[in-house]
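sorry for the late reply, my laptop died twice this morning and i had to redo everyting from scratch. anyway the thing you sent over, i finally got around to it. pasting the sequence first so we're on the same page, its 484 residues, then the predicted structure underneath. double check i copied it right bc i was rushing
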Amino acid sequence: MLRTLFLVAVFAASSALAGPASPNSKSDVVDLPRPEAGEYLGLYLGGKKIGYTFLKLGPVAGNPDQFETVNEFVMKAMVGQNKSERYLKDTRVYEAKPKGKLISFIIEKKGDGGNETLEASSTAQGIRVLRKRPNQPNEILTLPAVKELVEDADQFRLALKRGQKLVGQVIDSQDLEHYTLTTTPDTKPWAERTIGGVTVKVKKVTTISDKEKVPTDVYIDEKGRILEMDFAGTMKAVAEPKDIAQKLDVVEVFSHTRITLPSEPGPIARAIPGQLVLVATGLPEKFRNNTYRQKFKALDKDRVEITITAAEPKVKDKVRPLTDPNGGANLKSTLAVEAQHPKIVALAQKVAGNEKNAYATAKKVVAWVGGAMVKDYGSSSDRASDILDTMKGDCTEHALLAVSMLRALGIPARRVDGVVYLKNDDGVPALYWHEWVEAYVGEWTQLDPTFNQQVADATHFAVGEESNAEITPLIGSVKVVQVK
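ok and here's the structure:
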């Protein structure tokens, strides 16, 4: 969950930068008022500070026709008994002219998730990326031609200046894909707001990416300072002096974000076949999608009854490789799901052996991952090949490695995000944020490598896919009022 929150903050705040003041021959984005020395914002989850971000920009030394943007992020928290820390620095250089293109970027990552540096430059053929990781050979990646423009670097302030909605493309620092970023200014006039005991005039813009799908309200004062960013009510970034921003709370993420239950689920919820019925509040309509495992029934304006069932798939005779019913996305090899990495392919083939039956192969993979990996919460890797170096991690690493191996074997698969029933050391029955696997074996079926379940039991309540940050607004808002 800390990883998902990190991605939300990184993507939303990454649109908050632009270049220095310049003549009219430059894009109007570079003339916008903003703090020349940069700005610090503390990151809060449920009132507890778990990190901070520093945003700074300036001219490229000796080249007034270019400028760079710099984002730095730090997030720290306890995950179980382990300390988890993530650091990211994203430096981008643009042409300063109107509709100037992104020229290059350097993305540095350290800490939980693994160390990595991505050095990219735009060429006539596309974007050339040099990927560096400790104790691994360097890699060259080629991405499609750049779509990100200088105006996309600071949609917040530019939307306010122009008084209109802006739509552009931004390269994501995690998967290096282009995503649409849309920023809409509030039509209301400047309003007074007291922040830190000081009354200032502010305006709001709302920005959203088609990756994260988390609407973020950004409040900016007349001097172009970002005073606050509200990530759909789940997390906030608040302007603070450097020493205050860097002073963090000690937050245990599991307990801080869990959904407590009024009673324990019965034995049928853990059986296969099995069933669990929950009555919940605070679950928006867009998350109430009926599937082969989950059914939703509105009881009144806010309460919804959720019926979760778990059973083996009815189709068990299909032979791999299989065609992805969703057009190929669930067989794709990506920067994280490295289905074509030689080590992943070799391991998958070794584990599968001569087994060609898709469902039997999926069960073998999940059983192997569940048995071979060490459960170590707070020890994380963001790339499947990095997991092979440590063979430890939490649910995210288990799901990521299993999905990569399944895709390598021609079985469409994806990660599922949601909550699962657990009892922590304090004995409180609760649903904890979790990630598991869904594989297509002729029909979709869910498996959990972390708990070595070849059928994910009915205590698994799915709300999203592939580490999708769209689920973050549910943190703190969903309440379970009855367990049937």
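Residues 317-473 form a domain with the C8orf32 fold fold (CATH 3.10.620.30).
thats about all i looked at so far, will dig more tmrw
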